[in-house]
Amino acid sequence: MPVGRPPKPSRIRELEGNRGRRPIPKGVNVPSRPIAPDYFDDQQKCLWRQIEYSMPAGVLTLADSQAVERMAVAWARYRDCQVKITQLSMFARGSTGQLAMSPLVKIQALAAREMHQAGEVLGLSPVARARIAAPESSDDDPLALLLDGGRYAPVHRRPKVH
C-alpha cells in the first residue's frame, strides 16, 4: 500500500500552475459530467448543482459521481440535523431523566465528517482552493526580469504580523 498523499488530478495540477515544473501526466479524459441520482429530493439536487458549479470547468467527470453524491447527501443530512436541533434542543432526556446530548448532534457530526472526507476527495477544502490559481505569466519570472533589466518584485507578499 502506498504511503503519503494521493496524487492530485492532472486538471487540478494544471490549474495550480505546475510550480514544480515536472511533467504533468495526462489524466483520463471522460467526456461526460457526473449525473445526479434519481432518488435525490429538491434540496439534494440543489446541493449537487452547488457542488458542481463551485468546481473549475472540466474537473468533474462521470467517475466523480459517487463522491459528489456522498457530499450532497451528507450536506443535506447535516442541514436537516441543524434545523431540527434549532427547533428542538441540543439536549434530550435520557432513560432516567438526566440531560444527555441529542442523537441529532451525533448524526450531524457523522455527516460533517463525511462532508469533510468527500470534500477532500473532490478538492473542495479551503486549502485546495487556495492552491488553484491561474498559471503565472512569463512577465513574473524573476530571472527574466533580472536579465531584461527589470526590477523583481515578488507577486505574493506575506502580511506583516504585529
Could you give a short description of this structure?
With 162 residues, the protein is mostly helical. 46% of the residues lie in helices and 4% in strands. Helix 3 runs antiparallel to helix 4.
Structure report:
The chain has helices spanning about 10-15, 40-55, 65-85, 105-120, 125-130, 140-145; strands spanning about 90-95, 100. By secondary structure, the chain is mainly alpha-helical. It has a domain at about 35-125. Mean pLDDT is about 80; it is low at about 135-140. The N and C termini lie far apart (about 45 Å). It has a two-stranded antiparallel ribbon. Helices cover about 45% and strands about 5% of the residues. It contains 6 helices and 2 strands.
Give the SSE order as H and E letters. HHHEEHHH
Q: Quick one: biggest sheet?
A: 2 strands, antiparallel
Count the E strands: 2
Nearest-integer average pLDDT:
78
Biggest sheet, spatial arrangement of strands: 1-2
Range of strand content:
under 5%
Radius of gyration: 22 Å
Euclidean distance between termini CA atoms: 45 Å
Low-confidence stretches: 134-138
Task: Label the structural class.
Answer: mainly alpha
Count, helices: 6
**What would you call the shape?**
elongated
> Helix share of residues?
40-55%
Q: Keywords, please?
A:
162 residues; mainly alpha; two-stranded antiparallel ribbon; 46% helix
Chart the SSEs and their pairings:
Layout (H helix, E strand, L loop, with lengths): L9 H7 L25 H13 L10 H23 L3 E3 L5 E3 L1 H20 L3 H6 L10 H6 L15
Antiparallel strand pairs: 1-2
